[in-house]
Structures are given as C-alpha cells and as structure tokens.
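1st attempt posting a full record on here, be nice pls
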Amino acid sequence: GDPGIGKSTLLLQAAARFAGAGLSCLYISGEEASAQVRMRAQRLGLADAPVRLGAETNLRDILTTLEAEKPQLAIIDSIQTMWADNVDSAPGSVSQVRSAAHELTQFAKRRGTAVILVGHVTKDGQIAGPRVVEHMVDTVLYFEGERGHQFRILRAVKNRFGPADEIGVFEMTGGGLAEVANPSALFLSERGDPAPGSVVFAGIEGTRPVLTEFQALVAPSPHSQPRRTVVGWDGGRLAMILAVLEARCGIPFAGLDVYLNVAGGMRVSEPAADLAVAAALLSAREDAALPSDMVVFGEISLSGALRPVSQTENRLKEAQKLGFSHATLPERSTGSIPDGVTLYRMNDLASFVGEMFGAG
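the predicted structure (as tokens):
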C-alpha cells in the first residue's frame, strides 16, 4: 500500500488479536524504533497485547532471531528497509529486496512460520521492487484507499490458500482501523434524494456483492477538446461506452465535458458496470433522475447489445437487503429472482435508452 495508508496500524491490530488468541507473534520494524511502535500500540489501546517487538534492518540478525524464537507469526515492516550483507547494493534496491524476500520465504517454508512482508507501492500502484517478489510469495494483498476518505480496502490479488479478488473494507477511526461488516450500506450511506447522474450499481468483489454509487456530470465544454475525467473506473472503458451511445443510439457527447466518479473512494473494475455508467451518463445529460430504489448492472458490447453477467441472484439479494425494489439488467440474465424485486429486462442499449429516457 501507499505510505501512510495504515499498513502498520492494521498489522499491529492483527498481531495483537493473534497474540491475544494464544499465538506467539513477533513484529520486526525496520522503519520505526520499538518505542514508536509501542506508542502506536498505546494509542490503539493494545499496550497489554503480548506481541514481541524488534527494531532491526540486518537480515542476518533477523533470521538468527527468528530461528531462535520460532514464532508462529512474524511481521517484517518493511521489506524495503531490509539489508543483506552478502548483496553489494543499498537497502531498497531491486537485488536487496529480491534477496531478502527469498531468504524470508525459505525460512517460512522450512519452519512453518507465517511471515508477512510489508511492501510499498510505486506511483502507478504496483509493488515497489522486482515483480519477482509477487511470484515468490503465496498471497499478495493490496491495502488501498484515498487519503481524503476514511474507507480503506484490503484486496487479495493473488491467493494460494483461497479465492483472489476478495475484499475487506475498513474504516479509519481514532482507535485504529475498524472492520465494516456491510460495505454496501457504507458506500450508499451519504446518498440523498435521487439526483440526475446518480446510479446505484450492484457489483461483485470476489465472492461478495457490493453496491456502489456511480456519479456522472455532463456539462457544455468551453474548450475545443472536451474533458473526460474518471475516478475509480477505467477511462478507456468510458470512451468505449460514449462511442457506443453515439454510434448505436445516436446520442452525441461532442462538445460536452464528461466527469465520472465512484462514490466513497471505491474502485470498480468489472465490465458489469457498463450499463450503470451508461445510465449515469444519460441521466446527467438529460437532467433526469432514475428512481431512487433502482439498481443497474450489465455488460455492453460494441454492437450495443447487453450481455448477461454472473451472480445475478447474489446481486439482487444484496440490493433487496438494502431496500432496492427495482432492477435493470440484460434480457438473458439467469438465476432465481428474490420476491419483491421488479425487473426491467433490456435486450440492447437502444431499448434501454427508449424505456428509461424516452425514445428521443
């Protein structure tokens, strides 16, 4: 994760919980002194947790200590600060990171100790250092979120022990990171009366359904080149949907600035959000709000047809749980429908536009 996002806070809370459950935990910090880690623990109310602390960057000393202590969980914070004396380069360099990760991984496999390595990310969000580190380890977790939002998302992008693409949602509070049991309610909590450009999307993150709000704004552009600004979604996919709306439905966006945002700092990557984005863009362009109790999902093909998406039943159940009673989705979607949910099945984008916003 990014610097300051809360990696050390989350791991300290986790280590305290594990230690409280009777596991032997060792937290080694290469970035902070033991006193600083202890101060953070006091601030989080974890000062009494039986977690053993160490402040060291010399890999040889750390491995010797781990061999002697034989902890069940070892946290190395962070791998960029580790220094192996047999590698002739500065700490944080590619060769040092690769060597340190390799030795710690070998120790974990030999001793059966669970080892968590903390890594920083580069400006474009990739793990800093060689990509080979991702191949060495069993699980890669990204801790992400916007500094301005209190929400943080822990996302599994690789997992040899279970499904990838699972997420855990946390809220940054004065007492540390608190788990959010129902992320959908959190992401929709600040939604007021129905407004033009606001559409609720029933998405799937890993195996859990999560409802998020897409917000669009379409305004006349004072520039010769209209702006296309996206936060939380793929900009290339937005350009594709704008092209399909113009080519298949005759709705031009030339001369109009388009802004698209996923509320709450959430990131959405699945193609099932296509129809929700198209609905938000049309709603903003026509200045017509969709019903507040409606969710939208479906994939748009370049021909303008709507393709069904997976886990329709789970999406609809989550929507119903949060009080949504109407859903717009592709015609060929399968799965049992929860009672009390009215469906609008659409075959293509043109019929969706005609049904929702009038044939004009």
